[in-house]
Structures
1.
Amino acid sequence: MKNDVVAPKSIAFAIRVINLYKHLCTEKKEYVLSKQLLRSGTAIGALIREAEHAESKLDFVHKMNIALKEANEAEYWLLLLKETNYLSDHESVSIRNDCDELIRLLVSIVKTTRGNLRK
């Protein structure tokens, strides 16, 4: 069930990241941090998509765990963009909330699947 939720949320997040990247490049002339965010923010969904066709449950957990690491990295870049005033508090709240939600979902999926492997 959670996999059905996390995949579309990761796509929606990637789209938001892409649009934010375009905004930061054109309006703020910021290229370095935004490129890092683009890479990590779009990798989340790609890894979730890969996990859908994992070779085993262990492979599934591995790919979802990497997606979790990418989500944590994206959260870091969003924080840096906010703290360096490329994003205002208002601009960053919603996308950071989306990122936090992805992190919580991925943590839950990884923990649940790992727990099921031990049974």
2.
Amino acid sequence: MRRVNRKTTTTESLLGLLSLGPMSGYEIRQLIAESIGNFWSESYGQIYPGLKQLVAEGLAEMKEERLEGRPAKKIYSLTERGQERLREWLAIPVVEQVPRNELLLKIFFGDRGELPLLREQVEGRLRALEDDLVRYRAIEARIHGMEPHPGKKFWLMTVRYGMAEANALRNWCDSCLREMQ
């Protein structure tokens, strides 16, 4: 097995997205917003150079789709080599990354600030978590309503992770607010 870079990059996310079917860069960005955008993000500034790199490395191919009265649409699809690279990456153990969390940083230094202002920030995070849960429930319902697909159970696992994390963080926010009284 060929060694794959352990740092997850745009390349791996694009390989995974293209494994779902041929797409344009715009369609990839839309799919990110509707699916993995809750835990992984790629901007247009990352997607288009990433697609170009995939083609240069032989991991994807690009075909132009002619459209009447509009510029040609570039559609990308995985090659066999790209599918192999995705399988190799999926087999590599996850390297945990330390998250950056400004709210935790502020709480850590909370004794140097004003308690009412810190409390407002925790309350704001709590409201955002409630919004997240509404969004996650809608995503879960959409996935349940889809036709059978081999990826469906895995998509549900990711949205349920988001729900579990949001619920745990809600409990944590409630606990912090009680301690700040």
